[in-house]
Amino acid sequence: MPVTVEIRRASDAFTEKGEGRLTRHSFSFGSSYDPDNLRFGPMTCHDDHLLGLGRGFDSHRHSDLVIVSWVVSGALDHLHESGSGSGSEPVTVLPGQAAVLSTGPGVDHSERASAPATRFVQVWLAPGEGDLPAESSYDVLTPSLETGALTRVAEPVPGAVFSVARLEAGQSVEIPAAPRAHVYVARGALTRSSMAEPLQEGDAFRFTDE
């Protein structure tokens, strides 16, 4: 199978705006249907959200998904209303933390910014048959990030690894070989080998068989 490298620019994302909210969708979503951009391996959704204080998403239901949220700035309050790890009080997720929600057969949850300019990147994963736990669960992970290195944060579903790299200017990191790799620039700018034009905030690489 030939190696492919696809560049997805933030300017091409489907953007939704509301009062105190801006969302960029990397994949086909809602009213923006793109049959050639429905998923990438187990990834079915990749969103970048910016919320004003008190803004967010009221209680809604998901099923048969694992959802990973990485907080870039601000603070995100998450209320998980059923299953293990749930409670009547929200859990606050801070910058540098990853929240992993496994919905099981179904769970209700809400997300709301508890600080101004709260930004988080969220990925939805559709596990293979038999890979989704029978009950919902919720965990908040706080990785120890070493500047200049790629840090493995979680394996939310078998075979899918979520990693984070923080690089100073001029530093580089090698992405492990894999059937698929999605590399998203949350902040700053990134070049690949001798590529002339860098990736900016909100841009992504999609590697296949490299």
Q: In terms of topology, how is this protein built?
A:
Layout (H helix, E strand, L loop, with lengths): L3 E5 L5 E5 L2 E5 L17 E9 L4 E7 L3 E8 L2 E5 L10 E3 L4 E5 L4 E7 L4 E8 L11 E5 L8 E8 L2 E6 L14 E5 L4 E2 L8 E2 L3 E5 L2
Antiparallel strand pairs: 1-18, 2-3, 3-4, 4-11, 5-10, 6-9, 6-11, 7-8, 7-10, 9-12, 13-14, 15-18, 16-17
Characterise the protein shown here.
0% of the residues lie in helices and 48% in strands. The protein is built from no helices and 18 strands. The protein has strands spanning 4-8, 14-18, 21-25, 43-51, 56-62, 66-73, 76-80, 91-93, 98-102, 107-113, 118-125, 137-141, 150-157, 160-165, 180-184, 189-190, 199-200, 204-208. The strands form five sheets. A seven-stranded antiparallel beta sheet has the order 2-3-4-11-6-9-12, with no helix packed on it. Strands 5-10-7-8 form a four-stranded antiparallel beta sheet, with no helix packed on it. Strands 1-18-15 form a three-stranded antiparallel beta sheet, with no helix packed on it.
Distance between the termini: 10 Å
Helix content: under 10%
Spans where pLDDT lies below 50 across 5 or more residues: none
Based on DSSP secondary structure assignment, what is the total number of beta strands?
18
What would the keywords be for this entry?
210 residues, mainly beta, seven-stranded antiparallel β-sheet, globular
Tell me briefly what this model is.
This protein has no helices and 18 strands.
